[in-house]
Amino acid sequence: MLRSGLIFLRIVLLGLLLMGREARSQQAQSASRPPEAPAPTVAELLVQARSLQAQYHESEALAKYEQALSKAPATYEALWQAAVLSVRIGARYTDETRKSAYFAAARLYSSRALVVHPDGAEGHYAEALTLANQATLFTARGRLLAYREMRPHVFRAVELRPEWAEAWQLLGRWHYRVDHYNPLERLFSRLFLGGMPAGASTFRAIDALQRAHELDPKRIQYAYDLARVYLNRSQQTRATAVLQEAVTLTPVTADELEISRRCRRMLEQLNRKLRRQISRHVRKL
C-alpha cells in the first residue's frame, strides 16, 4: 500500500513539473509574439472608407462604413454613404432579388441618416436616390408613390447643397421622369394619389442637368443624361455639342466605359443623320 502511495505521489509531482514547464513555455511564446494591433477607431474606419471610394473599391468601402456603424450606429457620414454605395452596388445586379436586398438596406441607412441629421443634404439625397432605384422594382402603384415621396427629398438636397452636382442630376431625372408619365400613370395619380407631383417640367429637367454638367464637366454621366434630354426635345445641335465633349473624357470605371460607348453611338447616329440631311439638301440644289 505504501508503494502504491509513493507511485501516486511521483505521478502527481511529474504532472506538476510538466504543467510548470508548459506554463513557462507559453509565457515565453507570448513574450516573443508581437502585441495585437488595437481595433481601428470610427474615425480611422471613415478615413479608410473614403480612400477606398476614391479608388472605386465600392464594396470594400461599404464594408468599412458598415464596420464603423457597428461601433457607432449614429455616424451620419457612414449612414448616408452606406446608403449611396448600397444603391450603386445593387444597381449593377441583373437579379432582382439581390437588387431588392441592396436597395432595402440602402433605405434603412438613408432613413436612419435623416433621423440623425434631419437637415443634412446628403441624407435627403440618399433617400431620394434610394426611392428612385426602388421604383424600378415596384408595381405601377408603388412606382408612382416612390416618385411622389421622392420629391421633397431631392428638392431639399439641392436647396441645402446648391453646388452639389449629383443632387442636381437626380433632380433633373425626377423632373423628366414625372413630366413623362404615360396617360395611365397620370390618370392613376389623379384618381388615387391626389394628383401629379407638383412642379415637374422637362424644361426644369434641362436646367437641372445643365447645372450638374457645369458643376462637374468631367463626369460623363451628366453629359449623357443631358444629351438624351436634348435629343428627346429634338435639340440635335445642343446634343451633338455635349456628346462631342463627352467622348473626349477618359472613362475610369466599367460603368463610365459603357456610358462612353453609348455616347459614341449616339454621336455617330447624329452625324449620319446630319450627313443624310446635307446630302438631300445638295441634291435639291
Give structural attributes:
Serine Threonine Protein Phosphatase 5, Tetratricopeptide repeat, disordered N terminus, mainly alpha, 79% helix, 285 residues
Secondary-structure map:
Layout: H1 2-32, H2 42-54, H3 58-71, H4 76-91, H5 96-116, H6 121-134, H7 140-160, H8 165-179, H9 183-192, H10 202-215, H11 220-232, H12 236-246, H13 254-284
Helix pairs in contact: 2-3, 3-4, 4-5, 4-6, 5-6, 6-7, 7-8, 8-10, 10-11, 11-12, 12-13
Structural write-up:
By secondary structure, this protein is mainly α. It has a domain at 46-137: Tetratricopeptide repeat domain (Serine Threonine Protein Phosphatase 5, Tetratricopeptide repeat). 79% of the residues lie in helices and 0% in strands. Helix 8 packs antiparallel against helix 10. Mean pLDDT is 89; it is low at 1-20.
Task: Tell me about the largest β-sheet.
Answer: none
Mean pLDDT: 89
Poorly predicted ranges (pLDDT <50, ≥5 residues)? 1-20
Shape: globular
Looking at this structure, what is the CATH superfamily of the domain at 46-137?
Answer: Tetratricopeptide repeat domain
CATH topology of the domain at 46-137: Serine Threonine Protein Phosphatase 5, Tetratricopeptide repeat
The level-1 CATH class of the domain at 46-137: Mainly Alpha
Quickly give the CATH architecture of the domain at 46-137.
Alpha Horseshoe
